[in-house]
Amino acid sequence: xxxxxxxxxxxxxxxxxxxxxxxxxxxxxxxxxxxxxVVEASVAAHxxxxxxxxxxxxxxxxxxxxxxxxxxxxxxxxxxxPFAGG
Length: 86
Known about the structure:
Layout: E1 9-15, H1 18-23, E2 27-32, H2 35-45, H3 49-53, E3 57-60, E4 63-65, E5 76-80
Parallel strand pairs: 1-5
Antiparallel strand pairs: 1-2, 3-4, 3-5
């Protein structure tokens, strides 16, 4: 029997810098089972975010993760575009 798909959970998505400008908000609630699904839902709602999300780093509850990382209910996904400067 194949494993069941992860269950979708609602998380807070926080946008920083260019991601905030593209989304038009600093945070919102989205659903998904993985970071990638949450980001895809955000891009579907804010198409201008696609370019930023393609090169962004993602944090889940403060730690850097990949798109395949499962999200816990009530967690926080942060979208951090590349930063310039030093």
